[in-house]
Design a protein that fits this description.
The chain has 364 residues and is of the alpha+beta class. The protein folds into two domains: 8-127, Probable inorganic polyphosphate/atp-NAD kinase, domain 1 (Rossmann fold); 135-353, Sandwich (Tumour Suppressor Smad4), CATH 2.60.200. The chain is built from eleven helices and 16 strands. The protein has helices at residues 21-31, 43-54, 67-80, 103-106, 111-121, 159-170, 177-195, 227-234, 269-272, 289-298, 300-304; strands at 8-13, 35-40, 60-65, 90-95, 129-140, 146-152, 154-158, 201-214, 222-224, 239-240, 248-254, 280-286, 313-326, 333-336, 339-343, 346-359. The strands form two sheets. Strands 5, 6, 7, 8, 9, 10, 11, 12, 13, 14, 15 and 16 form a twelve-stranded antiparallel sheet that branches.
Length: 364
């Protein structure tokens, strides 16, 4: 990347919960000589600002907002990244919105305090960061044409996306953040799961790369799935790991441990990416919808900490899978980085060659 700029490019989501008029005045007053602010209020403004920033090949980009802000930023960056360049700039993610899934990983705190740390260190030695593989998420239409493709560290379909949709519908009326998320589960998602029809049946195909199945005894119960051997034995080119685990209520994938609010959704992701190994943690929630929802609620504490083990929870470490839904009465919602993405029937999740590089505030 080129020499570092005197001012640090800073993308600010104007719609984020923490981006108030007083906050912006404070930022402008204190740091206008050190930060180049890009205030974005919609997707097109965010894309325009990011493309402009990337022309300078920045070493560091500050992003203020929730999970949606960094998700948009990395995808807008990738749009203009040269084909032969796999290096995205370091992103300093400041907590100013909802979700904030990376915060526990990088030790981020109050935005002003974190800004002070950055400005004190920036321009000197190399900045410390943590690196996570990005998952390429692709949606397909009924003719198998790609209708959407983007990058994130977590995504999913089924229950998790439905709860996020319920949360988004409620947060304008009730509290946001973790209280609003739990309210969405208690007042909308759980009652609906108990009385609704099941989602479509699903096939989950292993496409390529290494694959492991994690048993109920976690790290002491790991089985390597030899794709070529399975293909020979079963005389098939398509390996469906969901064959014996219907019905399926949710399929979620991640390369970082947390959803927002400190919810450890992917506890094995931190073991899936060591050295040259690049994999994602896949969790498949199975069983009758009502019973599975009740069990998850009764064990909320261990679920939240990523410690819950059950035969309704199937776990894998993989590199490339395709999820196909078929034949159900219920539509299957989807999400990427906590952003609702509508109803999908076929989704490909593939670990990409790109990395999300997050500034590590713990080591500043």
């Amino acid at each position: 990347m080129s020499a570092r700029r005197r001012k640090i490019p800073t993308i600010v989501n104007a719609n984020a919960k923490g981006v108030t008029k007083s906050f912006l005045r404070k930022i402008n007053k204190r740091y206008s000589n050190r930060l180049e602010l890009y205030l974005t209020a919609n997707l097109e403004k965010a894309r325009e600002a990011t493309h402009q920033i990337m022309q300078e090949q920045p070493y560091l980009v500050i992003v203020m907002g929730g999970d949606g802000a960094w998700y948009q930023a990395i995808n807008h960056m990738q749009e203009v990244l040269p084909v032969d360049n796999l290096q995205l700039p370091i992103i300093a993610k400041l907590k100013a919105g909802t979700g904030n899934s990376p915060s526990k990983l990088i030790g981020s705190g109050k935005p002003i305090n974190d800004l002070e740390k950055i400005l004190e260190r920036y321009g000197g030695s190399d900045l410390p960061y943590r690196s996570f593989p990005l998952i390429n998420v692709s949606y397909y239409d009924e003719e198998d044409k790609v209708i959407h493709s983007s990058y994130s560290t977590f995504a999913g379909s089924g229950w998790d996306a439905r709860v996020l949709n319920d949360y988004n519908n409620l947060k304008g009326t009730f509290s946001t953040g973790l209280p609003g998320y739990l309210r969405a589960v208690a007042t909308k998602s759980l009652p609906r799961e108990i009385k609704k029809n099941p989602f479509s049946s699903a096939s989950i195909y292993l496409n390529s790369g290494d694959a492991y199945r994690i048993g109920e005894h976690a790290r002491n119960d790991v089985e390597r799935l030899d794709l070529e051997k399975i293909k020979r034995i079963m005389d098939t080119e398509k390996i469906n790991i969901a064959k014996k685990i219907h019905p399926i209520n949710a399929v979620v994938v991640g390369t970082t441990p947390y959803y927002g609010f400190g919810f450890m959704t992917f506890p094995y992701s931190q073991f899936a990416n060591v050295g040259d190994q690049r994999m994602m943690h896949v969790r498949v929630i199975t069983g009758k919808a009502a019973w599975s929802a009740i069990r998850a609620t009764l064990n909320a504490r261990s679920v939240w900490k990523g410690m819950y083990r059950s035969n309704i929870l199937q776990e894998f470490l993989v590199q490339d899978i395709t999820v196909e839904y078929w034949g159900g009465q219920e539509e299957v919602p989807s999400q990427i980085a906590g952003e609702a993405m509508g109803v999908q029937r076929k989704i490909n999740y593939k670990v990409s060659p790109y990395d999300l590089k997050l500034l590590n505030f713990r080591k500043l």
